[in-house]
Amino acid sequence: MKKFWSILLIMCSPFAISAQQRSLTDSVQYRVEMQATLSSGDHAPLWLNANKYGLSSLKTTNGYVRGAIERKLSADDGRKWGIGYGADVAVATGFTSTLVVQQAYVEGRWLKGTLTVGAKEYPMELKNQALSSGSQTLGINARPVPQVRLALPEYWTIPGTNNWLALKGHIAYGKTTDDGWQKDFVAPQNRYTEGTLYHSKAGYLKIGPGNFTAELGLEMACQFGGTSHLFENGVEKVYDNDGGLKAFKNAFIPGGTDATDGNFKNAEGNQLGSWVARFSYDQPTWNLAVYADQFFEDNSMMFHVNKSGDKYFWYDFKDWLLGAELKLKDNAWLNNIVVEYLYTKYQAGPVYHDKTSHVGYQISGRDNYYNHHLYTGWQHWGQVMGNPLYVSPLYNADGHIEVEHNRFVAWHLGFSGSPIQQLNYRVLASWQKSYGSYYYLPVNPMENVSCMAEADYMLKDGWSIKGAVAADFGKLRGDNFGFHLSIVKTGLIK
Length: 494
Prior knowledge:
18-stranded antiparallel β-barrel; 25 strands; signal; single chain; Wzi_sf; Rhodanese domain-containing protein; mainly beta; three-stranded antiparallel sheet; Rhodanese-like_dom; 47% strand
């Protein structure tokens, strides 16, 4: 009898293992975190606040308790399909809201394609997550936007190319969640929006299977729909923007026109994007990469040419984020170095002129990066959704939801290492000189230096402790000094 049960157990074990593998409650990870930030000055220093997916604050004293569970799609690796989900909630003090639902999503995978519904933190593409100053279009500086996202998240090799060509990308539509914050933050008779819809898309092509690879891509985004509240000569004007199927099409393929355009037509919504590229050379002990991110707000800087009548206007290639990254594979003390240069002063030039009956040519300049005449610009909950060196609206003491400093020159340095197995560190330092914007001109250019040193020590049983000290110096963000401390516990729910 004992032998019978042993044989039966052996026969049934593959089905038991299969059933266990297909359980949606296996491989669920948890994370609990407590963080506190203390600062002196007008604000928390830049690098204690920036590039944290908006789960941060400019208040000099702030903190949160955070809990999250996640089942990654990788739990179903080896099968044609996969299921993932996550929930990430924080209770905060000194933030734009006390209860923060940072992430809440479900997603499915079939072969290489994924469909995600909800709010999820997505990493930057073609840049170092920890050391870069940030992407100019699809950054990691603001809270995630709830969306429906269809993606090819990992490179898929195109058949018949002998592994020389591979593609990845995504298409997403969503809706912003900061209506209440806008009403609380904005000063009387300053514009705000409600129910703004969101669209993003990106495609990347990878060339080369060997030591040298090239990655080329296009990232685009749009804010559209919703209701805009504008004030003209003290009188409020409300515009109900189109949110129908035609508006979704115009967000995907820029077209249409806004309610406030009048005789001077522009593409519907706040359209923006970046051309991105990364070139890497890999060796056994090191890897060197150079990359570029060229931002644009309209056709003039997207294609660098504008045709008006029988005239062509050519635009310079001045505005760039240019970077280099060196990985030292055998050097634990210093294993990664990133250097970046940003120039955003040009913005298609200082002249804008619409075509009229008297002047038959249109000159498209003064692009006013991250701002828009109808929407509150490329921001969510007061934080820019791109690179945080563009000064976020949260810094504005006058209650304007606007990026007032978008014309600047900056240098950024980041490096990291792991002196011992349990210890990781990173250092960030940025210098920036701002010229305001074409519509906001400070009396003199405003400079700023921001730096941070951070260390993360892994303890036993999934515990870790992280500490950082940071400072700002200069007129742009003020003289600020602060530190933060976080304690984290991670593990697997059995």
